[in-house]
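Here comes my example:
=====
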Amino acid sequence: MSYSIGVDIGGTKIAAVILDERGAIVHRSKVNSITNDKEVMFQQVVTCIHGMIEEAEIPLYKVGGMGVGVPGKVDREEGLAVYQNNLPWDNFPIVARLQEMFPISKISIENDVYMAAYAEWEQAMLQKESTFVYITISTGIACSIIHNGIFLRGKGFAGEMGMYPIRNIFGDDSSLEQVASGPAIERIARQMLGKQIQSTHDFFQVYQKGDLNAKRIMISIVDAIAQGMYIVISLLDPHLIVLGGGVINHNPILLDLVKSELRKRLIPEQEGAEERIQLSQLKDDSGVIGAGLIGSC
């Protein structure tokens, strides 16, 4: 049996998995990111992968490939982590460096949202002639588009829907990411609800208790996400939209709220588009599974 390795590198943690030939996880590992130095951060990636391989007791000659998901802009041809706003890398040659540490014939790099999108697209088993959109709502907000089985990349920075400008209900000009990402929710909720808010989890708990200010914040979040999704629907009219990322994976009540708000915006020709939106099936594993699948291609 041959295996593949998937690695998902983020500003908070590094996760890695070993997949078997069926794409099932047979072993996993996770370590904290250390983002104050590029070499220390790289060593954390090595530690995560090396420790997992040792624990799994799988010889490297049985590993056919490795996929590495990195946030921000990457250069797939040169194997570079070009720019990440939450990592200390600038044109960092991560593929070449990993090949020095792990004698694996093929190591691929890809944007982390694209990795997650690929896994969810495979899971959905759509007809090849279809348009699929994966949207992550997490530390940041971004999307990835797979059309007729191929990623739509533009010139290399496509999918940054978190930058989309909106006017939120408080009358401020903001970007989608500044209103509805995890850090934005925490910041706004702390301003309006006080020190009791230490995380998005705290905010959703206060909201579910019926706090009026929490309800106002939720209206702003839902309105912002609906604005962004309406742009996606109007431009692409996709066959399926999958929502993932930590904010919505851990707070699935957002789905029905967003669908309800979105329904108000749809014209008759778009009727029913909201029913083509669903939650991630792979949840927090979508990034590492996608990385492993792409690594095995």
Notes: The longest strand covers residues 25-32. The chain has two domains: 3-116+285-296, 126-279. Residues 126-279 form a domain with the Nucleotidyltransferase; domain 5 fold (CATH 3.30.420.40). The first helix runs from residue 38 to 56.
